[in-house]
Design brief:
about 290 residues; 11 helices
Amino acid sequence: MSDFHGVFPYLVSPIDAAGHIRESVLAKLCDDLIKSGVHGLTPLGSTGEFAYLDAGQRTAVVRTTIEAAQKRVPVVAGVVSTSTADAVAHAKAYQKLGADGILAILEAYFPLSDAQVEAYFRSIADAVDIPVVIYTNPQFQRSDLTLEVIARLASHPRIGYIKDASTNTGRLLSIMNSCGGDIKVFSASAHIPAAVMLIGGVGWMAGPACIIPRQSVALYNLCKRQRWEEAMTLQRKLWRVNEAFARFNLAACIKAGLSIQGYEVGDPVSPQGALTAEQRRAVEAVLEDVG
């Protein structure tokens, strides 16, 4: 299994008013992020607005990211559906395009039992020959992954990672304790990355890394070297980004931040809205503060 670790920015999905993916903008963003030292790229995470894109748009985002990466860093593509068959089809298609891993996400309308949740993720992992990162975000998802389900999924030969977007760091430690070395934990922007690294995390997959990639990589390197005092000094500074973004729509914040930095990524997909002028100024102030 591939060794995924470090900073994986959750990419935005640049899109114009007609619904076309701005492939050149996304390719430039990917290239710049790689040159900034990130360890991987994740298209179609939460910041990628996967819930608002159709199948063609999703495929364009994944294909563009893979082509831009040119195997310099691994690309872990998000797969999400309410339907197991649909998720499996997309996972297979993304592997064929050249994805190095799959970020498996479950959307649910009707309630699901633990057995049904587990079967969804197993079906995706059974369908591909590349590593699978299972994803849980209880703030937005109807069906969460319980510790028991996570432990059972960790026995699957291709499920080696979890991206947990809860705000419960104790839950992350419980996952590590119950799964041992069978599953590695990625933090989210809802967690404090340095704290997750301290307890045994392997990195983070998060939208803010799109706009502060160099600072994020510097934080990761300090954590890996166990220079915790320096790491926490930097973490306290960078946490201002997370605090600001928690007040607004995340995709809108990241797109505003990238726009301020010169990337024409467009507005969030409707019915989401762009930041107001006042909110945009708040984002700009935070970016100036963190350099």
